[in-house]
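Job type: complex structure
Entries:
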Amino acid sequence: MATIDRILFGDNQFFGVNHMSEEKARQQLMRFKDIAAIVEVLDTAFDMGIRTFMCTTHDRIGEICDHMRANRERYKDFVFFPCMPYAHKYANSVSQVGVMETIQRFSAGGVVSTVIRGAVGTLTRDIYALMKLLVDAEMKRFHGLNTPVIFVQNVVTDLLLGLKLYPVFGEFHRYVKERYDAEAGFITMNLPLLLDALDQAGVDNPIVCANINKIDFRMSGGIHAYREALGTRKCRAIAMSVLASGAIPAKEAIDWVCGMQGVQSIVFGASTAGNIRQTKELIEQAWAR
Amino acid sequence: MGLRVGIIGAGKMGLSHFSVVNAMRDAGVVAVCDTSRYVLSVLNKYVGVETFTSPEEMIERAGLDAVFIATPSSTHFDCARHALDQGLHLFVEKPLTLSPVQSKALSAMAIERRKVNQVGFHNRFIGTFQEAARLVKAGALGEVSNIHGSAFGQVVIKEQNRTWRAKRSEGGGCLHDYASHVIDLMNFLVGPPAEVRGASLQSIFSEDVEDAVSAVFAYSNGAAGILETNWSDETYRKMSTTVAVHGSKGKLVVDRQELKLYLRQGAEFERYVEGWNSRYITDLQKPVSFYLRGEEYSAQVESFLEAVLTENTAHENSFASAYETDRIVDLILQAGGKARA
């Protein structure tokens, strides 16, 4: 079973995602336009003992992987938790060229070899085979790196949850184990509902990641349902959006989430050494109490 | 199960509505119609819904209470008219139609048949924009003098779009897509303009449609409006919509995350003080029962289903309100020298 550190490092700050301010998101995109600036922040966190980077399979993540492979000794304990897919990439492609061509464009073999194999129709009509092709395509850039947990991004988890395509969760769980010796993780904005679905899909003691914050921000089903689910269900829960993009003061937010039964890990993003250190210390102090 | 819902058009928006409706306690999707046999075969095999290639056949056979229409815009009118004729409640993706005459006719038909009639202008369900509209209507800004609405994003950043969005005849282009959202939002905040004084529709990458729209509006109280949209701007990660409103007592700037309100001396209003005030989505957004891709997408579906269950036809984003947006879109086409033949 994969070991999940209690404190994980996130990536929103690097790719212009900020739930409070578009202006701040833009400034961050400009600051992190060079991979070197991202690596510098990752190094800072790594040297403080935060060794897991939970990252979207954004196009630019490949360059970070290249850096890690080129400096294997330095990063031998560095761990990636890839979160796939980077949904905007697919959504923009569907708007541009349609569903069928998007599938061909992003499947592991690429258009040409898939067509040569003459199997595109048969393969894609079987959604499990299609899922495997897309997972392989996303995992290519992580070749040779530690990826003990592979996550499905919330927009896909929750789309499948709404469509009630629960068996896909089970298939994903089995496939990443078999092919990558990894455990499946599921990011969601609907944690109580997802835990029921994963139960039905036969995923035991699942790794899940959800917004868990004091102000109930993007916790669908409500804070009471979350408390109940986390307190009674067997799962390994990672809290994200703990500060609700800065809407809650750091200490208050962290003390609250660390007191929440069932939260095993926290993922947070920060851009400066001071903020990384402060957040890490607040979490450690809260959990030590 | 509750309400039996059908989806016409299983593209990005259709699938999104499908998932959200299906997660609701009082409703479920029982039938889907699309032209892609591939998409239908997957949905039939794995989700277990009935599938159709003809909307008429689906409506006749599936025993529906309501349908969602999320097909290319040029097909909305015929689909919507037929659904209303068959007595169904109706949610139509934006824009309602490509012609104000058709939109007005659909609105009259829905009112006459007392059917719920909603259009997918989802920005009206975002907490920051709702609060901005409330403040303007309550007079917090005093007399409005200027409004500026803009949207930027990266839908078309190469010369290779091959879907209906690149075809003018099917309702593609930035005007019916990005610009219609912003026009609707400007209408939501200050009401529709009386006139379009000038407009420019520019192609950047697309051959058949415009990628950028600029226009100047005049309002009946003398206020002026500026619309600026560009869907070929790759400096934006995703669609970014901002509206600024100036009034005699102050101004506000609002996007989907943040509401900034400046009030002049002596113009404090409710909890808002003189000078700058900031409020965020984390505080302004009402929670939804199921989250897929932004509260607004769930909230508009919840609102629609609630209206159907209670047979309330006085709901947000009615066809009548969407007609006002289609009317301005048409005036922009005329002002920009691109009026339909």
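Summary: The first strand of chain B starts at residue 3 and ends at 8. The radius of gyration of chain B is 20 Å.
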